[in-house]
User: What shape does this take?
Amino acid sequence: MCTDETHGTEHGIGRRALLVTGAATALTLTTMSFASAADGSQSTKTLTGTLPPGAPDFVYLPVEVPSGVREIHVAYTYTKATVPAGTQNNALDIGIFDERGTALGGKGFRGWSGGARTEFFVRADDATPGYIPGPVRAGTWHIALGPYTVAPDGLPYSVTVTLTHGPAGETPRPSYPPERARGRGRAWYRGDCHLHSWYSDGRRTPAEIGALARAAGLDFINTSDHNTHSAQAHWADVAGDDLLVMLGEEVTTRNGHVVALGTDPGTFIDWRYRARDNRWAAYAREIRRAGGLVVPAHPHATCIGCGWKFGFGEADAVEVWNGPYTPDDEISLADWDNTLVSYARSRGSGTGKGSWIPAMGNSDAHRDPDRIGGPQTVVLADDLTRDAIQAGIRAGRSYVAESAAVEVSFSATGGKGRVAGIGERLAVAADTPVTVDLEVKGAPGCTLHLVTDQGTLFTSPALPESGTGKVSWRTTPSYAAYVRAEVRHAPAVTGLPGALTAFTNPVFLGA
Assistant: This one.
């Protein structure tokens, strides 16, 4: 029971200052100060104000926390405005940093829920999903507000902080899933590496996601909640001999999203920067130092802040197909194909640097009716382990399918019986005849397409009701620097391509 409760209301930006966080300018609000109090009591204060249009990406509310606090609880509201058609309305995200500070890439991060929750708590023995359990130590904490969009008349907000005084509980020791499952040796493994649970803005528990992944015929998944690693300690019971669970994060910046795929347990990647801040390369390296892959997500998505603005120089792969196939996926596919053309031409001219960027596809599933495993990336890996799956993705030994019912076999043969599969190079002379073979199962009514650096050079008739078909096509490396396969549904609109059923990474041709 509360034996001593203090209340206070403070207004807006009574003392406002600009704070340089190392990447961008942020706004600091009036400090909310609390005094020590008796064990079992609660202290509550509220701050209200209005953020103007053009507010910085992040607004920090300092909270002076005394010693002897068991729990910090934060609730907030903001007002939607009446706006003209076509004008963005107010949207405000929230998170928190502890007494270690808000420095970019620092140790102070304690959680983020974006706009998914209106309240949260943090204490030593527990925390709201999206937040990190641990002691509420004395010092200056910071509530982080993220004005995602601000209406022309401003964004009115109210933040209420309640401290519960008393001894802290014991922080649980995290348990993480193993880095291997029972595989089939070198084989094709199916996975979905972009999934959201209730630890960010998803609505499914890890257990529910695991059950749906198994039902979708998946062998592996990767956790990717927005801007927090809080879920990572809650997947051990989901993993099993039949399902590899890799850990990651969807790093959600204001200039695009990137999946950190298969990072070390407990890895947090900061997101508080834009392309103009020139910070992205350092955080891409941080993902790799933590053992992860850098995968820009839905690069041409049309939601605010979703389009990828950082370039692909740091990418290990790119998510070309995200969820149900839509026009922005078609644009991503064409854009990715242009990177293959550029790589092939620069390599042919002797000026090429680096390597090509493989493609993958994921569901980005958040809640019903989002379908986990739709689409899924099918990877040729030496075993069902984190390292082996990552190696297959990085090498492009993979194809993307809309479901486990779709199977694709694709290869090129030439020279003295040389064979190259998906993601490989058939190293033969420029004038060597090459035979490209494509076999597809589980795609009734679909057409098969062979795409090269010259464009689509072969299209089959529609497959029969059985969904099974084979095609062979002959070319030379001088005519086609690479070949990749697409399987498409019938067009929904005359003159436009049908939605993808599957597509492969390329087979490169030529020495």
